[in-house]
Amino acid sequence: MNIHPRPNPIIAALYTLRDIDVDVVVIHGPPGCGFMASRMIEEAGIRVVTTAMNDDDLIFGASDKLGNILREAERMFSPKSMAVIGTCSSMIIGEDMEASVRRSGVGCKVISVDCHGCMGNNTAGAIMAVEASAKAGLISEEEAKRQKHLLSMAADMEKERGMASVPYLQPSSGPTKMGVAKRIIDCLSNDGKLVVMSISKKELAYRFSDLFLAADQACKKLGGTVANISNLDPQKGLPRIRRYAADILSELSAKEISVDIVGGLDEYAVIGEDLKEAVDRHSPDLLVIAGIPHAYPDLNKSQILITDQPRQLSNYLSKGYDAVGEISSHQMVMNVRRIVPTETGDTIREMLKDIR
Question: What angle do CA 328, 333, 335 make, to 5 degrees?
Fold first, then answer.
């Protein structure tokens, strides 16, 4: 049993619909449900509105209110597609959202995701969003099947090795970046082989790819060799996810930085052995794993682990790993189209200034 806060199926559905490029999402529930996530999603260009259910709606239902909101959203935003996401409130009272959509008479494509916060794994909400999107023709049945498998594997991985594997984790901001930056600089200064791996999820790749830039700069000044590995296949994933990978690869290519690509940004839970094979080919003196380090099957205390999750960082530190946190990364990468500097990368760059 996990008693620390865990991700929510409603929010997972919201992010999945964003990745499918739905134009407007209607959250059918109280005005505060999903507030923080909705604000962040809107920064990525998706309109998020709420039916703002109240006490009377819990007694008498809110079908008419949902229809009115759908018509108003269509009038205001002229979307090509909309989605309605259920919440605990609407599901408990048994709202028939599909019937409300049909009665609304809106002209654009609208899908209903009948999720709620008590479904268990957050991936359950994402799976429902994928299934509804395939039914509406927004993605192919083949891609929906692929996504469902990947989401199931991701949930299993978290239960085995991630935050869901421990009853309680206290958030940690971790140590400063000086120690890991020094290890990276010492490796290259001694003509060592450094491998930088980013195993990232969705838009967080924009942040963790900064380690490639910092390592390249260090290598050019200090010597040694650097190899980069990442799950940045631009041909895999939902539409928005493929764009993330393409953006990052374009920026790295412009700086003449090459990356060994192993899988897509949605495949982190199933490519561990392939990543290990890629690392073994380089026989590194030091391996840096950024993003979701526990997706790598051969973690040991000689490596450097970098995560954006305060509780996951606490998990790593409790096991004796050399780990640091790029906390608040998620807020920094919403609606960006280029690599965002990390504290670790900036620490490396700052230390390089003092090296003659």
Answer: 140
Please give the structure tokens belonging to residue 233: 């296949």
Closest CA to 203 of 22, 45, 331, 313: 331
3-state secondary structure 4-48: CCCCCHHHHHHHHHHHCCCCEEEEECCCCCCHHHHHHHHHCCCEE
CB 333 within 8 A of CB 265: no
What sign does the dihedral 50-54-56-57 (CA atoms) show? positive
How does 267-305 read in b/e, with b if 16+ C-beta sit within 10 Å? bbbbbbeebeebbeebebbbbbbbbbbbbbeebeeebbb
Q: Tokens 């940045």 belong to which residue? A: 232
Angstrom distances, CA of residue 179 to CA of 8, 172, 174, 194, 318: 35, 17, 11, 16, 17
Residue numbers in the chain where pLDDT is lower than 50: none
CA distances to 14, 80, 143, 234 from 130, in Å:
11, 18, 9, 19
Could you list the beta-strand ranges (E) of the chain: 24-28, 47-50, 81-86, 109-113, 193-199, 225-230, 260-261, 286-291, 304-307, 322-325
Distances, alpha carbon 74 to alpha carbons 18, 84, 319, in Å: 17, 13, 51
Helix or strand or coil: residue 110? strand
Which of 46, 44, 48 minimizes the C-alpha distance to 333?
Answer: 44
User: How many helices (DSSP H) and strands (DSSP E) are in the chain?
Assistant: 16, 10
CA angle 324, 327, 328 (to 5 degrees): 165
Model's pTM, two decimal places?
0.94
Strand order in the sheet with 304-307: 260-261, 225-230, 193-199, 286-291, 304-307, 322-325
Residue 99 has what pLDDT? 93
Query: 217: how many CB neighbours lie within 10 A of its CB?
Result: 17
Tokens of 301: 């205390």
